[in-house]
């Protein structure tokens, strides 16, 4: 591999992180944003793209609320069949 290609890969990865975090922040509803208002997150990501993108990814928004399904709340699945050891 050439040296130019090896130096281009980190630049592309950082650009993808920054653009992805910025677009994610823009698309996230205001009620899911943590710590500071969304416009401040956007300014932080524009002024410090790498640190801002990482901070947004790990600290910026609340996780999506999980919707409980009837099948998942009943407990563990007990499997039966020829390869299951009976106790």
Report what the structure shows.
The chain has 87 residues and is mainly alpha-helical. The protein has a domain at 8-60. The protein is built from three helices and no strands. It is flat and about 60 Å long. The termini are far apart.
- What is the N-to-C succession of helices and strands? HHH
Question: What are the segments in which pLDDT stays under 50 over at least 5 consecutive residues?
Answer: none
How many helical elements? 3
Largest sheet: none
| Strand element count | 0
Q: SS-based structural class?
A: mainly alpha
Q: What is the general shape? A: flat
Label this structure with key terms.
mainly alpha; 3 helices; 87 residues
Itemize the secondary structure elements and their pairings.
Elements: H1 3-27, H2 38-47, H3 49-60
Helix pairs in contact: 1-2, 1-3, 2-3
Describe the structure concisely.
This protein has 87 residues and is an all-alpha fold. It is 54% helix and 0% strand.
């Amino acid at each position: 591999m050439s040296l130019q290609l090896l130096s281009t890969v980190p630049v592309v990865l950082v650009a993808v992180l920054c653009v992805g975090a910025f677009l994610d922040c823009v698309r996230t509803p205001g009620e899911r944003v943590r710590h500071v208002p969304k416009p401040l997150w956007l300014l932080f990501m524009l002024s410090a793209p790498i640190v801002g993108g990482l901070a947004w990814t790990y600290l910026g928004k609340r996780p999506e609320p999980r919707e409980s399904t009837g099948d998942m709340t009943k407990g563990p699945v007990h499997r039966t069949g020829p390869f299951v050891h009976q106790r």
